Amino acid sequence: MTRSYEAIVIGGGPGGYVAAIKLGQLGLETALVEKGSIGGVCLNWGCIPSKALIHVADTVSHLQDASIFGVTANEISVDVEKTRAWKDEIVRKLTDGIRRLIKGNRVDIIEGKARFTSDRSLSVEAKGGETQEIAFQKCIVATGARPIEIPGFEVDGETIWGAQHALDIPHIPGRMLVIGGGVIGLEIGTVYAKLGTKVTIVEMLDGLLPGIDRDLVRVVERRLRQLGVTVMTKARAKSLEKLEDGLRVAVEATKDEEIVECDRVLVATGFTPGSEGIGLDAAGIETEEKGAIKVDKTLQTNVSGIYAVGDVTGPPYLAHRASKMAEIAAEHAAGHDVTYDVKSVPSAVYTDPEIAVTGLSEEQAKEQKREVKTGRFMLGANGRALGAGQPHGHVKVVADPETGAILGAGVAGHTASEIISELTLAIEMGAGVETVGSAIHPHPTISESIPEACMAAVGKAIHAINRPTRPKRGK
To answer: For residue range 75-129, what is the model confidence (pLDDT) as tens digits?
Structure first.
């Protein structure tokens, strides 16, 4: 027997559950199909548990460094089982809350793996093997992304971990080799380094956190060195040998091959769109070369009535991007005249210190041979940062040299993820550096650095020596 719905959502992550809730609010008879856990990777094995463990690691680190404030903390220890239970309880509370929201908006939850059988139907296979057929008028695909695998370093959950295994914190290994110097590798690597693990990071490219301005990344690199983390760039993990007392990893560097001994390997080489195995061909849905589903400005695929949102449409792989796309797709599916039209999608890296960016970076401006002017303010001159013992880093704005409009911004420092939103709003509104710089900010706060950086771009900063404001030309 075939069940019918006005709208079906495939995937229950930050894109899928938001789409389902919105569709329910708009009055469409809706079902959400999820093969795993509601909340997706982000809530269950990514964004939320990682930030919980980052807080634990930061607490340990702050206690160890508290002597600078005249505070002595002796015999600091971590009870891994209690830490894991605390982290799991946070995830449970949030996932239970999302389930209540879904059901409270009259959306059915169907557990199983969905696969298109046509452009208006799909089958759902439950864990027990039973299959049910579902017909729909509109569908939103939100199947997320899956980790990229490395031949020879297949994740087994024992000696070779993926992010999910590392965030489940089974124990604190003595030595860990992290393959990948991107967001996941640095966040998790930093957690374990603070908990006592000797960490080595191997990155193929010539620098960590590719795509982020080097002056921001250097702030994090300095802290990694202080934590005793070894960073190998222009290097590739070549092979793995399992020994009785650990692992031996051959790393191919620029000139030579180096052997790194460790107890665990963390594979953190990024993600690829999760578009496989859901029957896109049966529905006639087109994808790009790397599997990302093609969408237009309404987030509709080439098949009318079928939408795709979030990671399955390609990078940037960000939960908040997926959620925003989900709202737009749901509204359009319900007949509203809307499009996905955003000027900037902010992102944050929860390293020590944090990095957050939005809009056009200085490096991107150079690549585009575009003239910009920049303004910086060092957190070492910010009273709140100094009082918190976090004077490292800076705020940077990138502006149009003629109009002064803020085109982009980057923050490396304490609470960077919290203050980047103001600069994102400025970009969306087309605000200029002097407009933002003239707004009164509470004192003392880290956010005071934003108007200082803005005014530095036009040579009017108060708490910094102003430099000539000649525009920077792309090379």
So the answer is: 899 999 999 999 999 999 999 999 999 999 999 999 999 999 999 999 999 988 8
Evaluate whether 422 touches 429 at the Cβ level (below 8 Å). Answer: no
**Catalytic (active-site) positions:** 443
Same domain assignment for residues 265 and 283: no
The token pair at 40 is: 């997706």
| Span 11-38, pLDDT tens digits | 999 999 999 999 999 999 999 999 999 9
Burial of residue 207 (number of CB atoms within 10 Å: 0-12, 13-18, 19+): middle
- Residues with Cβ within 8 Å of 320's Cβ and at least 6 positions away in sequence, in order, are 14, 345, 346
22 and 120, same domain (yes or no): yes
> Hey, how many other C-beta atoms are within 10 angstroms of the C-beta on 384?
18
Burial class (CB in 10 A: 0-12, 13-18, 19+), 146: middle
Q: Which residue has the tokens 């298109």?
A: 116
Task: Identify the three-state secondary structure at position 166.
Answer: helix
Pick from 274, 364, 370, 356: nearest CA to 315 = 274
Q: Distance between CA atoms of 424 and 284, rounded to whole angstroms?
A: 37
Domain that holds residue 400: 347-456
Distances (CA, A) of 180 to 7, 172, 374: 39, 20, 30
- Do residues 239 and 293 both lie within one domain? no
215-272 pLDDT, tens digit each: 999 999 999 999 999 999 999 999 999 998 899 999 998 778 899 999 999 999 999 9
Same domain flag for 10 and 129: yes
In angstroms, rounded to a whole number, what is the distance separating the alpha carbons of residues 231 and 220? 12
Taken in order 465, 209, 14, 42, the sign of the CA dihedral is negative
Parallel/antiparallel/unpaired status of strands 306-308 and 131-141: parallel
Tokens 């993926």: give the residue. 162
353, 390 Cβ separation under 8 angstroms: yes
